[in-house]
Structures are given as C-alpha cells and as structure tokens.
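Practice problem: Retrovirus-related Pol polyprotein from type-1 retrotransposable element R1
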Amino acid sequence: MKKKKGPGIDGISIEIIKELHDMNPDILHYTYNKCLELGIFQETWKKGKLIIFIKPGKDPSLPNAYLPICLLSVLGKILDKILVFRIAHLLHKNNRLHKQQDGFRNIRPCETANFRLWQAINIALQERVPVTLLSLDVQGAFDTVWRTSILFQLTQANGSRNIFNLVRNYSTNISIHYFQDEKVWNFDNQRGVPQGSCSGPLFWNLVMDLPLIYPYHREVTSKPMPTT
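Answer key — structure tokens:
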C-alpha cells in the first residue's frame, strides 16, 4: 500500500503498521489468518471517516458542490486486499467472469472493450450496414451494488466457506462517521460497497457479470467509466 495515505478512524497509518511488521511480523500474520479462518471482519475496521471537500469554483450553497471522501482503516484495507487476491484467484481458476467483462481486471482493461468496439464499427462500415451504439451509465455505481448478489456469485463460483463468511460479515454493520466542531454524526451504510475499499471494483464486476450471461443477439460488454 502507498505511504502518506490518510489513516482511518482508528488513526493507525500505514507507516505505523510497517514499523509493527518489521518489529514482529507474527502479530499481523496471526491476526489476519484468524480473520480468514473464522470469517470475521473486525467491527472497528468497518467504520469509515467522512471528509468533505468543496469543489474548486463551485457554489457552496449547492449540494453537488461538495466532494465526500471516506477514509477507511488501513488494517481493514490490508485484510480487504487479501480477500481480493483470494477471490480474484478463485474467479480466474474457475473462469467465472464473463469474457465481455472489462475493467478492473489484470488482463482485460477498458482498452480491450474499446478495441472490440472499434473492430465492430469497422466491420459494419465495410459491410455498409447501419451502426448503432447504446451506452448505459449507472450513476453512483458502487453505491448501488446489491450485497446479496455478491454472496450469490461467490456460491456460484464454489468459493470456500470461510471466504463466504468473511464477505458476509464484511457486508454487515458498515458505518460512516463525520466529525466537526467536537461533534460526531454516525450513519449506517446499508447498501453498496465501501467507498475507497480494495474489493469495491471486484464486487462491482461480480454483480455486473449477471446481465452479461443472458443471451443477446448482439455483442454486449461492460466496462467502468471515469468519474468526476
């Protein structure tokens, strides 16, 4: 993980964790192995610290003038990253993600979807047939991920029981906390995946894989688009 990233609500930075690992790596190894074995994601690691910035040149009286950033526990993000490696290996081994699923994948970036689109348009132009492109944009994509569908896809991929339990536990009791002027506002996050999480893109791919498995008469693809 990159240094100089803001710590989460626990105040533990990546620099502190690296110092701890250098002094006694067994502590972290034991902790994460136990989390994987028991399928438990620590409650304190599910708490996000909300930071709100105003966008340059925007009217502060308008709601969309503000950019919310959620800082997560670095300890939790490490476990989240381990989880991503395990699930990504499972999906690759069992060939679970659709061939048209592009973006957030090591060997299938967004450029592969753009290349297929370019090929399809060129073929259509050579055959002198009309070309129609339909593009759908899901607003607030990560916020709309249905958590139950993530668990369903994991069962379809024949994932291990402890990974399933860990994802299920990770999906519960997620909360966001906003601090201002010695006051704190607490919010339950009951939908989507945590902003800034390592697993968010992977879970989005899992959910978006479902529409791609249905038979269409023409080629359909899915890829993430840049947001502002």
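Discussion: The chain has seven helices and four strands. Students who identified this feature from the tokens alone can consider the problem solved.
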